Amino acid sequence: MELRVSLDQDLEQILAVHAAAFGGRKGEEIANLVNDLLVDVTALPLLSLVATVKNNIVGHIIFSKAKISPDQAVSSVILAPLAVHSDFQAEELAAN
Predict the structure, then answer these.
(1) Residue 38 — left, alpha, or beta (φ > 0 → left; ψ -120 to 50 → alpha)?
(2) Which CATH number belongs to the domain containing residue 70 in this structure?
(3) Nearest Cα to 19, choosing from 40, 43, 37, 35?
(4) Model confidence over 30-70: pLDDT tens digits?
(5) Gyration radius of the chain's alpha carbons
(6) How many Å apart are CA 70 and CA 92, to the nearest integer?
(7) Which of 4, 29, 30, 54 is a good FRET partner for 62, with 20 to 30 A between their CA atoms?
């Protein structure tokens, strides 16, 4: 397994991982959230990491900026969403 920063060309595989990890309608909702976060300038700075096995993306996580309260200047980062493809959830990848 390798961990690396995601690339623009990874988007389709990233969305597929989230859809597979959560399944059904929930998977579609999470994939849409991920897609929105990746282009949301208010979420910057953003760190998007992928886990790959044999050059296939099997995991993904986003670290993004967030406001705790719109009236206070509190700096925070959210670690979410996190997805591991359903085919790899029982593997070491999910434990690492």
Answers:
(1) alpha
(2) 3.40.630.30
(3) 35
(4) 999 999 999 888 888 789 999 999 999 999 999 988 777 77
(5) 14
(6) 39
(7) 54
- Separation between Cα atoms, residue 63 and residue 80, nearest integer Å: 6
Angstrom distance (rounded) from CA 25 to CA 19? 8
- Domain range for 90 is 2-95
Contact 48, 38 (CB under 8 A): yes
- Output the DSSP codes for 15-82: HHHHHHHH-HHHHHHHHHHHHHHHH-GGG-SEEEEEEEETTEEEEEEEEEEEES-TTS--EEEEEEEE
* 65 in Cβ contact with 39 (< 8 Å): no
